[in-house]
Amino acid sequence: IVDSEYEANSIIEEVKHHFTKDYDKESLLEVTTVEDIEIKQVKATNAEIQEKDKLIDYIIKGTNEEKKYIVEKGDSFWSIAEYFDMDLDELILANSEADPETIQIGDELNLIVPKPFINVQVKRKVVQEEKMPYETEYAYVSYMYNDEEVVSKAGKYGVSEIEAIITEQNGIQVAKEVLSETVITPPVTQLVTTGTQDPPPKQGTGYFINPLPGSMITSRFGSRSGGFHLGQDMAKAAGSSIKAADGGTVLFAGWSGSYGYMVDIDHGGGFTTRYAHCSDIYVSAGEKVYQGKIIAAVGSTGVSSGPHLHFEVRKYGSVVNPAAYIGIQYR
Ligand SMILES: [Zn+2]
User: Fold this and answer.
1) Spatial separation of the C-alpha atoms in residues 202 and 143, rounded to whole Å
2) 223 and 156 in one domain?
3) Packing angle of the helix pair 5-18, 52-61 (nearest 10 deg)
4) Which of 18, 204, 278, 296 could disulfide-link 267, Cβ–Cβ 3.0 to 4.6 Å?
5) 3-state DSSP call for residue 320?
6) How far, in Å, are 34, 51, 55, 95, 141 from residue 19 at the CA level?
7) Cα–ligand 1 centroid distance for 331 (angstroms)
């Protein structure tokens, strides 16, 4: 109850304003209330006349109830929603001014989802940039397994400018009609190479294949300039695919000092293999791999003078000459 028709009308306008105040006036096409609003004359005492600002707030929130939460250390929107048994969407709705990504300790969040008594519908015209997804094309080759993928050309998102009419109810978008779309930057199609062969079982076969076919041995196993070379160096272009010499379980995959990026695989029977100086690693510790699986890419990380694979074979932890093991039944 307010004291004049003028006041009642101005309250309705204020409620509408609440949902449009952030927008450019020229962009607004239509601002209406979903409900038919009737202003009635009633007999009332002075005590029954309510304060305008409180009424506006009451109409927008749909309630006088307040329930707040102060953000504590370690909180996220997700954990707070979970704790108060709310949907994440509800919490976001209740805090439309807050950015879920950047809440700070001490921030005050609303736990009551506003359900306005008057639903304001806003239609506005917008011009905005949108991300255009890229397509992925596959090339199938017989020398790879069908669970392996190598991105031969990375895809890129495009950008377009769209003109649209957005319909919002109480500040929440409910419809979007795209009027026109202009491509600013077209997306770039991603090219992926994959195989047609079914992969073998993920276990050791007892036989070692060459982990880097087509490579050149540049340094052999054994004594080398006053030291001892624990493996053999196999040179091939950076980025070339390194294959597991046999199936097994990945023991280690990561950075290892002078070895650079390195992979160790346990093949059973006391045998392990090591692949070092990689530029990229495609497996992780604990993963089971099959013989021939692409596990890494040739690089020159760690102490290395150029792109090559440093390949080691170990039997119960002691290095053996890889040349004597590649291409043979080792157990
Ligand atoms: Zn080496």
Assistant:
1) 18
2) no
3) 50
4) 204
5) strand
6) 13, 21, 16, 14, 57
7) 25
Domain assignment present for residue 115? The answer is: no
- Where among 110, 134, 163 does a domain terminate? 110
Cα of 217 to ligand 1 centre, how many Å? 10
- Taking the centre of ligand 1 as the mean of its atom positions, its distance from the CA of residue 219, in whole angstroms, is 7
Choose one of 138, 161, 196: the last residue of a domain.
Answer: 196
What's the gap in Å between 310 CA and the centre of ligand 1? 4
- Tell me if residue 119 falls in helix, strand or coil: coil
- Token duo for residue 193: 């190479």
Q: Which two tokens stand for residue 62?
A: 């749909």
Tally of domains in the chain:
3
Q: How big is the chain by its Cα radius of gyration, in Å?
A: 33
Clarify whether residues 214 and 188 are in a common domain. Answer: no
Among left, alpha and beta (phi > 0; psi -120 to 50; other), residue 232 is beta
Alpha-carbon gap, residue 118 to 55, rounded angstroms: 12
**Sites in the chain below the pLDDT cut of 70:** none
Residue 168 and residue 139 in contact, taking contact as beta carbons nearer than 8 Å: no
Q: Is residue 281 part of a domain?
A: yes
pLDDT value of position 185: 95
If asked whether residues 18 and 40 sit together in one domain, one would say yes
Model pLDDT, residue 239: 93
Strand pairing category for 136-145 and 190-197 = parallel
| Nearest alpha-carbon partner for 103 in 133, 125, 81 | 81
290 lies in a domain? yes
The residue segments making up the domain with residue 178 are: 121-196
Q: Ligand 1 centroid vs 230 CA: distance in angstroms? A: 7
Interval between CA 62 and ligand 1 midpoint (Å): 72
State the pLDDT at residue 5: 87
CATH number of residue 34's parent domain:
3.10.350.10
CATH number of the domain within which 237 lies: 2.70.70.10
